[in-house]
UniProtKB/TrEMBL annotation:
InterPro entries: DUF2750. It comes from the Bacteria. This is DUF2750 domain-containing protein. It comes from Thiocystis violascens (strain ATCC 17096 / DSM 198 / 6111) (Chromatium violascens). The lineage of its organism: Bacteria, Pseudomonadati, Pseudomonadota, Gammaproteobacteria, Chromatiales.
């Protein structure tokens, strides 16, 4: 996915069920060797899940992150994170701090919210897949 996606392509991916977007995220993150989040003047965005736990959202490409840079996040821009840094620092730190990962949130609010250690394991498995 090297070329920017059109609005219809974005909509098509966002309309997929969250588990399908999760698989897409794993594949694209390892192919592109990076993930994307949103960052504004106050830092990286978070939201609370139903139980009040902090969730950090991540996407596989800047266009997906930018599609959610509205309302409370309207001052935010897509921020890339090298996959190695994401895996080694972010996910391990989030595990230590008891925070969760929101993988590939869509405009309708759907996403996979999970323990960062599980995402780390899934990314390691994806990276070790034969070409």
């Amino acid at each position: 996915m090297s070329a920017p996606l059109s609005a219809s392509e974005l909509s098509g991916v966002f309309s997929q069920p969250a588990p399908d977007r999760y698989t897409f995220f794993l594949t694209e993150a390892t192919l592109q060797d990076k993930v994307w989040t949103l960052k504004g003047a106050g830092g990286f965005v978070t939201f609370s899940d139903e139980e009040g736990r902090d969730c950090f959202p991540f996407w596989p490409a800047p266009e997906f992150a930018e599609a959610l840079a509205n309302d409370d996040w309207s001052d935010c821009e897509a921020e890339p994170l090298a996959l190695a840094v994401f895996m080694e620092r972010w996910l391990t730190g989030m595990t230590r701090d008891g925070r969760l990962v929101a993988v590939f949130p869509a405009p309708d609010g759907s996403c996979i919210v999970m323990d960062p250690q599980t995402l780390l394991q899934d990314l390691e498995e994806e990276r070790n897949q034969p070409d």
